[in-house]
Amino acid sequence: DADVTQTPRNRITKTGKRIMLECSQTKGHDRMYWYRQDPGLGLRLIYYSFDVKDINKGEISDGYSVSRQAQAKFSLSLESAIPNQTALYFCATSDLPPRTDTQYFGPGTRLTVL
Amino acid sequence: KNEVEQSPQNLTAQEGEFITINCSYSVGISALHWLQQHPGGGIVSLFMLSSGKKKHGRLIATINIQEKHSSLHITASHPRDSAVYICAVIEFVGGAQKLVFGQGTRLTINP
């Protein structure tokens, strides 16, 4: 079984709809991240969480919110989806330094907002 | 100017060739990642390094902190190495970790 899973894998929705993307991990990591990937722009950080009580904005958090329901679960919500949020979304986890900062990525969620 | 620049953006080579992908960054970092994104979209972390050189199979990553430059080398390249390779640097901003990604290098290895 995959260590980092994302649901759904693909989603098509309409402008104005509320969407939730879910991420679960079995690695036991405290740190979790949400990124979006757009062609030609690379990966950009939306939000990150260093533990259940710690949520931080990344460089492009506007229009998004997150919830860290448990150590293993980190959800990303689009309260009112808009077409420029069409992208590939990745969840990732990492352990605490100094053990390793290596990030482990989920398979991605392809979101299309019409 | 992006904080992390990769070159080349696209690279096509023949099977067996030695491949080099470069990453330059403009900020102070604590470490640097090399990631591989497969054609299906999945991302795998290849290396994390903060100094010197690391080797894993046919892959070699080097970093020069003074010159703010890292390279990823692939020896005896194979079509299955075809992927997008992404450089990402870890910097600390206001006490928090921030990961900054390059735009990626698309590598195609022809048989």
Structural features, described:
The complex is a heterodimer of chains A (114) and B (111). Chain A is an all-beta fold and 114 residues long. Chain A has strands spanning 4-7, 10-13, 19-25, 31-38, 42-51, 54-57, 65-70, 73-78, 87-94, 103-105, 109-113. In chain A, the strands form two sheets. In chain A, strands 2, 4, 5, 6, 9, 10 and 11 form a seven-stranded mixed sheet that branches. A four-stranded antiparallel sheet of chain A has the order 1-3-8-7, with no helix packed on it. Chain B has 111 residues and is mainly beta. Chain B has no helices and eleven strands. The radius of gyration of chain B is 14 Å and the shape is globular. Chain B starts with a strand and ends with a strand. The model of chain B has no long low-confidence stretch (mean pLDDT 89). The interface between A and B is medium-sized, with 23 and 21 residues.
Which descriptors apply to this entry?
heterodimer, A: 114 residues, mainly beta, 7-stranded mixed β-sheet, 4-stranded antiparallel β-sheet, globular, B: 111 residues, 6-stranded mixed β-sheet, 5-stranded antiparallel β-sheet
Name the poorly predicted regions of chain B.
none
How much β-strand is present in the residues of chain A?
A: over 45%
For the sheet with most strands of chain B, the description reads: 6 strands, mixed
Largest sheet of chain A: 7 strands, mixed
Which protein chains are joined by the largest interface, and how many residues does each one contribute?
A: A-B, 23 and 21 residues
Number of helices of chain A: 0
What's the alpha carbon Rg of chain A, rounded to whole Å?
A: 13 Å
- What is the subunit organization of this protein? heterodimer
Can you give the mean pLDDT of chain A?
89
Structural class of chain B: mainly beta
Which percent bin holds the helix content of chain B? under 10%
Estimated radius of gyration of chain B: 14 Å
Shape of chain B: globular
Helical residue percent band of chain A: under 10%
Distance between the termini of chain B: 36 Å
Order of helical and strand elements of chain A: EEEEEEEEEEE
From the spread of the alpha carbons, the general shape of chain A counts as globular
> What proportion strand of chain B?
over 45%
Mean pLDDT of chain B: 89
